[in-house]
Amino acid sequence: MTSSEGRRRGIVVGVTGASGSIYGVKLIQSLLQLGFTVHLVITNAGWRVIKEELGWNTSDREAVLREHFADCPGQYIYHPIADIGASIASGSYLVESMIVMPCSMGTLSGIAHGASDNLLTRAADVMLKEGRPLVLVPRETPLHAIHLENMLKLARLGVRIVPAMPAFYFGPQDIDDLVSFLVGKVLDSLRIEHNLFTRWGEQSEEQGQC
């Protein structure tokens, strides 16, 4: 998918109340840097976790989004969680795909059972009914049987489940490296080119070059 297609169609990004809001922020920044239009939906619990984990002043939500994302090359469109009449609530509105990162077990359950009780779960339901790519990044541990059953149900429907499990084979030096790796794996699942981490084998290949 080219950047022009990304700008035309856009990608929906959902951020929920699971720990790991830093993942969602890095994903949004990465997509915007690549020139995509990001349709952003954040649950109320997601806003609370952003405040607690990142220290953002969320009293004025649109202002804090402008502070962190307005200078990026792409465009973001913020949709309040209760706006069930938003463009992305309809299958007739064309978007390329949707990512929920991080995805709480409550949101994952709602998507698995078709409970479209807010804009995020409704937008995910649209992805399913229209056959468009949907990627969920669950961030919970340990997992019990209901969590696993919900993931299996969604996986069988074609949803990509990318758990927030960082790798270490590429020699991460700090937390940002670990976050970038996971965001990169999500972009890989949608075949979006990026340079967020060094792939297995690339280091040795680079060392052998003249």
Structure description:
The protein has 210 residues and is α/β, with parallel strands linked by helices. The protein has a single domain, classed as Rossmann fold. It has helices at 3-9, 21-33, 44-54, 61-69, 105-112, 119-130, 145-156, 175-189, 202-207; strands at residues 11-15, 37-42, 75-78, 97-103, 134-138, 160-161. The protein has a six-stranded parallel beta sheet, sandwiched between helices. The chain is globular.
Topology:
Layout: H1 3-9, E1 11-15, H2 21-33, E2 37-42, H3 44-54, H4 61-69, E3 75-78, E4 97-103, H5 105-112, H6 119-130, E5 134-138, H7 145-156, E6 160-161, H8 175-189, H9 202-207
Parallel strand pairs: 1-2, 1-4, 2-3, 4-5, 5-6
Helix pairs in contact: 2-8, 5-7
Domain Flavoprotein: 11-190
Binding site for dimethylallyl phosphate: 169, 185
Enzyme class: transferase
| Main sheet summary | 6 strands, parallel
Note the gap between the termini: 32 Å
Q: Any idea what the radius of gyration is? A: 17 Å
CATH topology: Rossmann fold
Family: Belongs to the UbiX/PAD1 family.
Catalytic activity: dimethylallyl phosphate + FMNH2 = prenylated FMNH2 + phosphate
EC number: 2.5.1.129
GO molecular function, one term: carboxy-lyase activity
